[in-house]
Design goal:
mainly alpha, rod-shaped, single chain
């Protein structure tokens, strides 16, 4: 007949139970330690994630500021381009006005040249007119001189003809002159 197993004593069972409990407690402690390490790692991971999120938020804020600065820069560049376009337009208008002014000045110079040419022609015509007038005056002076000479010659000839009897017979000329004066006095008294 097989032997019956002796029932384990209570103390031995208690010791085994205590040993199992101790092992279980040690396993639980190891598990708790692992859980604590896991929680610590998770907390570190969460902290790293929070820092990463904060860095990302800072990066996003910096990117937003950069985009805002870029938008302001683009706006300033657009305003600068607009001002440059207005400046070019004003410069084009100024060049056009200058071209018109230069054209007007050229026309004015041309008109002044034509006026000077007309004035030169007028002066030339006036000089020719003065020359003709001088020639006419010279001819008139020569004509008056000739007339004066002719009158002088005629007067001298008349004087010579009047004085010819006196030169031939001065007594008779003087006597006839006295008779003529007496006759003229008598005629004057009769008429009164």
């Amino acid at each position: 007949m097989p032997r019956r197993r002796r029932p384990m004593p209570r103390r031995q069972a208690y010791a085994q139970a205590a040993e199992a409990y101790a092992q279980e407690a040690e396993a639980y402690a190891q598990e708790a330690e692992a859980y604590a390490q896991e929680r610590q790692a998770y907390a570190q991971e969460r902290q790293a994630y929070a820092q990463e999120r904060q860095a990302y938020a800072q990066e996003a804020q910096a990117y937003a500021q950069e985009r805002q600065a870029y938008a302001q820069e683009r706006q300033a560049y657009a305003q600068e381009r607009q001002a440059y376009a207005q400046e070019r337009q004003a410069y084009a208008q100024e060049r056009q006005a200058y071209a018109q002014e230069a054209q007007a000045y050229a026309q004015e110079r041309q008109a002044y040249a034509q006026e000077r040419q007309a004035y030169a022609q007028e002066r030339q015509a006036y000089a020719q007119e003065r020359q003709a007038y001088a020639q006419e005056a010279q001819a008139y002076a020569q004509e008056r001189q000739a007339q004066a000479l002719e009158c002088t010659q005629a007067a001298l000839l008349a004087l010579v003809q009047m004085m010819r009897p006196a030169f031939k017979d001065p007594r008779k000329f003087l006597q006839s002159g006295t008779d003529n004066s007496n006759n003229s006095g008598t005629l004057a008294e009769g008429s009164q």
